[in-house]
Write a structure and sequence with these properties.
The structure is a homohexamer. In chain A, helix 2 crosses helix 4 and helix 4 runs parallel beside helix 6. The first copy, chain A, has one domain: Ribosomal Protein S5, domain 2. In chain A, the strands form 2 sheets. A 5-stranded mixed beta sheet of chain A has the order 1-2-3-5-4. In chain A, strands 7-6-8-9 form a 4-stranded antiparallel beta sheet, with helices on both faces. Chain A has 6 helices and 9 strands. Chain A is about 30% helix and about 30% strand. Chain A is α+β, with helices and mostly antiparallel strands. At the A-B interface, strand 3, helix 1 and strand 5 of A face strand 3, helix 1 and strand 5 of B. Strand 9 of chain A pairs antiparallel with strand 9 of chain D, so a sheet runs across the interface.
Chain lengths: ~240, ~240, ~240, ~240, ~240, ~240
């Protein structure tokens, strides 16, 4: 039995509210259980220097956590003067995941920056950020189509992410904080709407895990992502 | 006529929603027009080194703005590696304002940190932060009383803040972004519930201003703060 | 009675010695009691990037304190690797104050940087810096006129600053260190030669202060600034 | 056909030379094709503050690349003043991988730091670093046993890593630079000597990849790691 | 003929004014030609951590240059966020030079920090700083003797420094800026009052120089330092 | 008798192995006793901004030490976020020394960066770095000649360096760590193949030293450098 009473393959309740960041071209607040992440997409009419003159767009992400998103207050990264390795690792993951389903040629030389800021954290923030960022990105592209900057939405597919873990030797889906801090293994799966893999990250927290356990997690992740994709579809009005 | 159609002495609509930061001992989301600031109070059972062994508590604040709280996306301070002078100036102002009405002796050697994070900005964010932070602080002290950490709420008075300006030679209250960017003078007044002054900051943006204009702003600020104090009272259940 | 034996409205002895920084286009050492600030103006024939192609000049300031300007040695900001929030707040104040009386259109696209470095500190360093920086700026503009870079000195008025405070419930002018560290309120007034306000900053150090106390400080500041303007006039040969 | 003429499942030539860092308790230079990483283990008789009084040891890693380890010279991270996100991500991976096979209770409160510095880079540096760091760690533990600091070597198993990729739709093992820069997917597998998984990281570089491709990579990785474990065994004299 | 009309072996006019930094235990303003350096000594009753419990004192120095000490304004190091390599090199040289003549055992576990800040620069600032810092240090030790912190002044000898160079193939003493920027070789000699060597730094600016040229510089430096030592003696009242 | 049994004027065994950094235009591993420094030269077809349009080339150096090059592990400078003053001082010395023998006009507007990374340290690392960097630079210039970027090798002479010291009052050549940490004086001499001086740095570690001691060190350094120049000649195939 899981601390929350969920079955091993049960996702927490998911909701996606759009239009939260009033100035952003696209935005949403995604809630997965008690985890809440504000995702805002900003469109800019040029690409960073290293991407210039290639005829391709750029999609990138930044991630942050409000100091009191967590049980005990964390240091503010701006005050400490640098982003932690964890923050940088997560924001690079979000950017890569979105680029994997974006038709950057169709975008033209434009940049979309996704700001993913965690308002409340109860584990799974990077997965929530990827799932919500796709919605904000889609909304921003809708804005570009409406304003005739683009002729069609340059996204080839959905992308969404979910965490899995091994607890008491058994695979479980979508860990909350209580589970995350005691799991024997921890994995994040980023998948497309059509079921292909964009990113797999699995880590033994204590003892190494077996291939069978890994494959059980991968199966659960498929179902979890399918459910998240339905929520994304509703949020973007599709 | 003001861009928003308000009269010179009219405040924007104000609302204060509590309990937003689920882990914080006290929190609220304050909305003043389109400006939205999330204020979260974190209680810690010790004071910073420079305050030790004096039998006094400490109240401090940190301030941040989500990158897309503004019309065009701003740099993330954590990514740039330092807080701007403006950020530091604001967070010191919030801390000073709250300490001016706190009975730090009655607190004992505890620290409350107020995190004020701007979700949406339409001018007046530092004033909204002070007004909301008082609510978060009061709620955190309520928590301390409920859990027998303190015997009474160690606040001597309300404190709230409002901006004023001079536009076309005339004093106006509670500037929004359109006004803030064209005002001839810009002032922030931090006052207590009983009408005393905690902080006055007035700056000529172009030509210097007259004493008469300054005094007109001060009068308007009194009324604005009185209205904000009523909203604070409702929010903390008093 | 004040620690120094001064009456409440008495300024400390003031002197302004010009030509201290041999390479600078304008410079002075201003002494107000035991506070000594070296102000040097550097003229450059271009404006910073954010000001380009607007046909306006730029006046900015940097502020520093020698490590042993104070009773106990302070950290060298260059060694710590960053300027404190206080330093940044002060240098922005100096810059704003000088820009308020400068005809930036008449300057053309030139920059003057005012370096204000505190040699000895006995409170009131930011006010002394503003007062001295105006002299250095005027001298630098004289240099520009002499060398035919400008046709007239692009200053509309004097600007000078003085601190006030509340001690034992009574307003006092131009606090020294002994007073500054115990005052109940602390204020800085930046005024023009013609008596208008450029900046007002008043802060309760303990309990909030009353409007009557605030107005008494403002009255004293007027007289103090008038006296400083006379000293400025002598220093620039007017 | 691969650029190097290797078959899809062929590892590059591997050699491990020990004793390179003369002052280190354990060290080796691992060569995998043209990739060369110097791994040095430093033993210290205490743990970092966050690990104290738990009766457990600590194993951690730092990673660096000499500026001219690459085709074109890279910036020196010490000169730029910070480690890149990539560097931090890699050194955390190395540390986690080694801790997964270390009996930290048997270590006692000691720290071993593994410095992994890339002398020449031809892709696969993080995998080479993990594989070489295990050797350096084993040698350092041998030193601790010889000097009676430990009674037995506190390692439960080997750990080694290898990269895989998808090129032209087909899985390949141990990518060199030419392959790494064009692969459709890129994965790193960290496995134990007994075949369990410690870490899996797979990333789509362009289009998402299929589960079948992923499983083909995992199979190749098993064989690759088995070969590396034999080389480790020789190097530590086992 | 030198630009200033001096003979090859002529020092510029030297003056040392004491008591400039009002709060410092010892201070002086040393002028060598148009070079002016303010040297302030701060005494502290403990040593830095790495020196503790050895029964020895510590003497250290920090060096800075006001931004407009030079012909064109230089960046403020505090604003850039780091001290240049040149600054660090100079302050380590000043510290080493003073420690070479200090009886650190007789000092006891106390620290003296010498702040050397260049007000006006016309070459030779590091040499002026060493020469002036010795005076500030001596005055600070006098203060310690007067206040019974020390029983005698713990200095074994004078130490002073002078620059030399090679211009048009000929050795010259005490270069000013015009000479310094064109010299073929540049050397700094730090010598004691009794004529021993504390530090020699000689650098070819263009072509390498000969041993004969080097020895000619060393001879001139001896005479220059002897003259500086007389000035030091007057300044400390001896 | 020296700890190593060497006579006062004996150099440690020297070897120079070329071609270590596979991607570099020139490289070598220089070993002097147990000191090992990897020197890699990188050629770039442009000069830094401050050197542009002068028709001159640029030669510069960076220096680093692997954390476990020393008896006890040192902090990694990239992790600490800045290079120490010592590192900066050394890399500037290496750059100056090489530029003194380079015909920068003949180079054209190209840059060569010498990376000198210490693999094992047993004193004398900066001298080894200079001596090895000259070899790497020569090899890189050979590469430029072979690829028709330059018509001849733009080096006017060899440059090499050796340390000397005073131990028990007597001059000694090429100190190892045991000697370096106890020497009364420490000097580095950088000389050309033809015997001229490029840089002299001599420092009293305790008591000041005499001119006679200094001249004895200089004599030994001449012979030491002559031996190093022979090794350089062999290494570059000359």
């Amino acid at each position: 039995m899981r601390p929350s009473g969920r079955t091993p393959e049960a996702l927490r309740p998911v909701s996606i509210e759009t239009g939260i960041a009033k100035h952003a071209e696209g935005s949403c607040l995604i809630r997965i259980g008690n985890t809440e992440v504000l995702c805002a997409a900003s469109v800019e009419g040029r690409v960073p220097p290293f991407m210039r003159n290639q005829g391709l767009g750029w999609v990138t992400a930044e991630y942050g956590m409000l100091p009191r998103a967590t049980h005990t207050r964390g240091d503010r990264e701006a005050a400490r003067g640098k982003q932690s390795g964890r923050t940088q690792e997560i924001q690079r993951l979000i950017g890569r995941s979105l680029r994997a389903v974006t038709d950057r040629k169709a975008m033209g030389e434009m940049t979309v920056t996704l700001d993913c800021d965690v308002i409340n954290a109860d584990a799974g923030t990077r997965c929530a950020a990827i799932t919500g960022a796709w919605v904000a990105l889609h909304l921003a592209f809708q804005h570009c189509v409406r304003t005739n900057i683009m002729s069609a939405i340059p996204l080839r597919d959905h992308v969404a992410a979910v965490s899995c873990g091994v607890a008491n030797g058994e695979a479980i889906l979508d860990l909350d904080y209580a589970e995350d801090s005691t799991a024997e293994a921890d994995a994040n799966f980023v998948l497309t709407g059509s079921g292909n893999l964009v990113e797999v990250q699995a880590t033994a927290e204590g003892a190494p895990f077996s291939e069978a356990q890994f494959l059980a997690m991968l199966d659960m992740a498929r179902d979890g992502v399918a459910a998240l994709v339905l929520k994304q579809r509703e949020a973007v009005g599709g």
